[in-house]
Amino acid sequence: MNALITPELVALDATIGSDPTAVIRHLAGLVVSTGRATEVAGLAADALAREAKTSTGIPGGLAIPHCRSAAVLEPTLAFARLAPPVSFGAPDGPADLVFFIAAPEGADQAHLTVLSQLARSLLREEFTAALRSAASGAEVVDLVSAAVSPPPTPEPAPASATRHLVAVTACPTGIAHTYMAADSLVAAAAERGIDLQVETQGSAGATPLPAATIAAAEAVIFAVDVDVRGRERFAGKPVISSPVKRGIDEPGVMIEEALAAAADPHARRVAGSVSDGDAATDPEDTHESVGQQLKRSLLTGVSYMIPFVAGGGLLIALGFLLGGFKITDHADSIVLQNSLGNLPDGGLLTYLGAVAFKIGQLSMGFLVPALAGYIAYGIADRPGIAPGFTAGAVAVFMGAGFLGGIVGGLLGGVVALYIGRITVPRWLRGLMPVVIIPLVASIVASGLLFLVLGAPIAALTTALNDWLSGMTGASAVLLGIILGLMMAFDLGGPVNKVAYSFAVAGLGAGALDNQAPWQIMAAVMAAGMVPPLAMALATLLNRRLFSPPERENGKAAWLLGASFISEGAIPFAAADPLRVIPASMLGAAVTGALCMATGVTSQAPHGGIFVFFAIGNLGMFLVAIATGTVISALTVIALKRYARRAPMASADTPVAQREAQPSVV
User: Is 462 helix (H, G, I), strand (E, B) or coil?
Assistant: First the structure.
């Protein structure tokens, strides 16, 4: 156990901060100080990013912030007994016992099993009571060592059990919530005399439930934050689906809901049949509206498309850097006719530039098919991939661009979904997901593009490209303002993602004679960098207007903003949205307008200042960002100073000075 926790990683009765950010940073510092991680900032940022997805506070005064991080060198536990407690979002109040679980990105299964066992032990009252009474760090280490020892083999459920349920638990990290939800559900079921078998799909591996156990279950519970692996095994079962944290907070309620669903012939059920393998998921199994399903599918397509664009765009920019802008005319012949032993006239740099450009160009060629394929995947799961990719390829062939890819992906996914719902003879079910669905959906989706939709969409795409290419003066500035406002409106939320997706989707159409898509990408990236940079600057210009945690977040916001991570401003917006968001939007709009007005371009979809070689007119790119940053920083300072009832003052502000400050509505 010494490999996971030592007395140096234990803080007893400590006052290390008033919020989760401060506590996590302190525990990350303990991990780094013992040589188990390389940097505090990176480890803390990864843990806080995980915290932002789902709060890690659990009933009983407990919290288990955790993450996988490239900064971690070996799996580590750090423990703090807090005085006073700090709220981590648990429904029953703040936490006084905090375990920080830090795992490397490539943690082996044995270590992850140990970490998961610790998370499960936190549900035992005798274990938490012992932690609260421990007198030394060594005693805490001994308690943890005993807690993670292999548990005894449970007795099999009695044959007389009258009710049977099954469940699947899974969270994005797969270290803590997955296993704690499983144990909470099992305990709640046992109190009611219910036999519940749980499949934990976590980082320590997953042991699928036996088919006989699933067949005997009256209903299934999905306590998950990610997709359920092998969902088709539960086809036909009444289903209760909720976030994994609800399995910890309200296990009894979920058990009762599952029992009620088992007795309700109209309850939601897992779609498909057990033999369908990759049968499409029924959208009715979720609580999403049609609009939510559409948004999720579109964002799924964009998220899978971005790696092609990122790699391709950077390689094309690198090709221009090495071989010059005229490399586009000769790249094919240079790559095919020359080699390292037979260099072209321009020498080694020209050859490497041609290779980089050609690889990037081929990568960008997958942009529309990948977008369409994974939009279809988001709708119909794996049966939708082939129809979507095929429809995307047809859209490229017909010149319909990313608009055609979106339409083709939606068609392929919807057709695959509805074909998967058709009841077929048992002998045909095995062929449905691998032959019938891809074949028919490809014919329908691609056929509609060829025969009906492709030409009008291609004409619309051509008109859109012509309009973007012809934008000058006021129209270009107006577009930059709109994109800037959208990027700062919700800082990584749906509106931000719409603007970003618009820019990324059009990036593949950019060329030396059509730089409008590159200009839009530059405006979006620059505007998205402004909010975190502005908050970082504001915390330096007037520290007294910000709380200590916000000042600490301001330090990290410099790097986040420079890297084009708009979410770096979220802690500030969450604490004071009515001042931070309008100020951010003002600066981002100015930045977007300046980029469009001065013809700044970006061939890279992400990276901020670190992809400087992919930026055209780099000087104005930096000027635009700096201008927007200053405007937003000064605006948020003014709003905080004059548009509030009582300015936030730090602990060292004299009392008399605070009392003398006027109250302003």
Answer: helix
